[in-house]
Amino acid sequence: MSGEKELWGRVTDMLGSGEKELGSHWTYNLWNDPKRLAFVLSRYKFAAKVASSGRRVLELGCSEGIGAPILAERASAYTGIDIDEPAIEAARRNWTGDRFEFLAGDFLDKPVGAFDSVVSLDVVEHIQPESAQLFFDAIAANLDGDGLAVVGTPNATSEEYASEASRRGHVNLYEAPRLKESMGRIFHNVFMFGINDEIVHTGFAPMTHYLVAVGCYRR
């Protein structure tokens, strides 16, 4: 337990206040697989470079808001929505101020608003296949004018290397052609990227661990 208390102390120092702490999900990850945090934040860094500067950003499936400060840093406004209410409560505790808004609810149910950019990382693979089109419909419904979207998800070709827990939660994995086709129903232009650990590339898609699709020029 002493080691766990030491970790909590470092987390508290990082957040800058004894009144703030990471939510249960990212506390678990930081304690059990800390390198994963680096991988996930690198995905947010890429999304922010593409979609955030001077734009109103909506994140679908923001969880505890671990990527919110990266997406919001140069955005004109940031809104995150997630169906997990305890996760949203953790996000609200940690990321405050006029730039941040966090909503608890099902974004497949109705539009949140009109945004310049929609970002969704590590979400679509958790949505049942029969509801997947609702996910892409939600992207379109929340974009204003000629908005753009960034969608990231683990590659189906990497499933054989995934943990049992990941396999249970990933009920709707995509390969690159399917993700590009799904985004292509919304956008005229879809650009595909891969991420292995923290490295973003345009290499051979079947050997990519993580897929990212950037869609622009709406249909």
Describe this structure in words.
This protein has helices at residues 2-15, 24-32, 34-51, 68-72, 85-94, 132-141, 164-169, 176-184, and strands at residues 56-60, 77-82, 100-104, 115-121, 143-154, 187-196, 199-201, 210-218. It has an 8-stranded mixed beta sheet, sandwiched between helices. The protein is globular. It has 2 domains: 1-32; 34-218, Rossmann fold. Helix 4 (68-72) links the parallel strand 1 (56-60) and strand 2. The protein has 219 residues and is an alpha/beta fold. The termini are far apart. Residues 7-12 have low confidence and may be disordered. The chain is built from 8 helices and 8 strands, in the order αααβαβαββαβααβββ.
Tag the structure with descriptive keywords.
single chain, 219 residues, alpha/beta, Rossmann fold, 2 domains, eight-stranded mixed β-sheet, 8 strands, globular
Topology, element by element:
Elements: H1 2-15, H2 24-32, H3 34-51, E1 56-60, H4 68-72, E2 77-82, H5 85-94, E3 100-104, E4 115-121, H6 132-141, E5 143-154, H7 164-169, H8 176-184, E6 187-196, E7 199-201, E8 210-218
Helix pairs in contact: 2-3
